[in-house]
Automatic annotation (TrEMBL), chain A:
First and last residues of every ARM repeat: 74-116
Residues spanning the membrane: none
This protein's name: ARMC7 protein
Record-linked Pfam families: Arm (PF00514)
Source species: Promerops cafer (Cape sugarbird)
TrEMBL record, chain B:
Source organism of this protein record: Promerops cafer (Cape sugarbird)
Record protein name field: RNA-binding protein 48
Primary role: As a component of the minor spliceosome, involved in the splicing of U12-type introns in pre-mRNAs.
Keywords, comma-separated and alphabetical: mRNA processing, mRNA splicing, RNA-binding, Spliceosome
Biased composition (Polar residues): 334-347
SUPFAM superfamilies reported in the protein's UniProt record: RNA-binding domain, RBD
Amino acid sequence: MELGRLEYLQALVTEFQVTDSTGNKRRCSVALTMSSVSSHSRPFSLAEAKEQVLANLANFAYDPSNYEYLRQLQVLDLFLDMLTEDNETLVEFAMGGLCNLCLDKTNKEYILEANGVEPIINCLSSSNEETVVSAVTTLMFLTTPRSRAQTTALPVVECMLRFSLSANTRLSNLASIFLQDYCSPLQVEEARNLSKHTAVGIPLPKD
Amino acid sequence: KMAAGSSGGPGAPCRHHAQLGACESRAKYREGWRPRAVKVYTINLESRYVLIQGVPALGVMKELVEQFALYGAIEEYHALDEYPAEQFTEVYLIKFKKLQCARVAKKKMDERSFFGSLLHVCYAPEFETVQETREKLQDRRKYIAKATNQRDCFVLKKVEGPKKTASENSEHDCPWSTSGSSIVSNWDPSCFTSSPGVSHNTAYLSGNQNQSPLTSSHYDNNCAEISGYFGQNTSLTPSVHPGGHTPPASLMQQRMVPACNGIDRFMPRTTHLQERKRKREEGNKFSLIGTTEDNTEVVIGPQLPEIPKVDMDDESLNTSATLIRNKLKEVADSVSTSVEKPESSSAKPLVKQRRRI
């Protein structure tokens, strides 16, 4: 195992964890000392530091050779936790991280076991374009014979129907692929009928 | 700002085209040598299509395309007249045949000076057709399956045929289950062997390779990203990169990407070096116990190792290596003939000098 890289990843994750007084590791708090911060001209926020670290990890998540490390460091849990943050940027980066690593079988199973599909579906209603796009792709990647009941549930299909009509090409392309490749015509039909009658569903991302 | 309701189609300025300001607050241990903005790259953001802004309006399209063609075959290119551009500059769209070529091109050409103007290169996935996006995602699937030595339990519905009629589809409730007969796996079974001929940008061989410390990365330098990891450059301009254990700071280096030679298997440079070393040692092994070409000669004891014949896997490098080798031989021969008389009373036998190339 290459220590340099693991240490580096570990340092990143440490910034996200703090051991509280009872000795338990609490996730999502930044333990950032002044010494680890470079001298810079303008003040920065804790939020920014978190964002940088998360972006770093999310980019690491693109490379399969890092998956073992990321699992060891529980970064998958971190990504899932970040999906419910108020900070839109954190959600975006975490969603991107999940999108990057969810194709790996082990990661996929882990996410599904951890009930990750639900918060990802919720990301479909984000006003952040990247978050939504990552969420659509992640749902596709997470669809298995066992999980498809969840990933292609009626509200999801209905949402994809609306996305497929979007002027945002990236979004409409992905939604079309979702409908064509991951849903049965019956499901699509059902969703079409639903949207005709009610306004309930997952809202489109705002302008 | 692109959102679901906006009326801009491809060609309209999108948020992901915007060049983000460089991040100034990065912790020291994560600082690279170039100012970088904060961005996460996913397969959705990457594309065979690249948008090039800041091209000086001097009628240099031909030169521009030639420059980009260095990174791989180009399928299409044209100017985007309707795209907002700074005064005296133009915007171009270039479509590469392969995604990894687009990656290298973006990395290399972004923030490069071109005819006096600074280019801004970014991906333009919004130009993709549905099928192109689909193929992009499938390639990503294949790549992960190969890189992690896994076979995904989920296979897609048949996608390359024409759209099925409703009656065909209703046959199978779950056409995408593994038992479905309408399934086509787009995967090449050779994917799962370590056969050469597969080119993917991050060809880090597998998670089990604990030898090479280098991970390849997919994303690009400046113009908005945090470098998460380290890559290898075996592209057109082989440059030296630190191998082995790199300190965290240098993990921030820009990504290196292989040449878009679809035939060659991409290997990180240290793996190349290790391979050559291994071949060399193997060659030495035989030269020690070895046979002579001339079978009439009786070989007593181990042969002296010859100067190893290194195969550099490259025509020009091999030529150079051969020239050097021959020169060395020349020099060694001339030295051994000139030193006939023993230099000292101990009369040590002349040992062939092994020079490191």
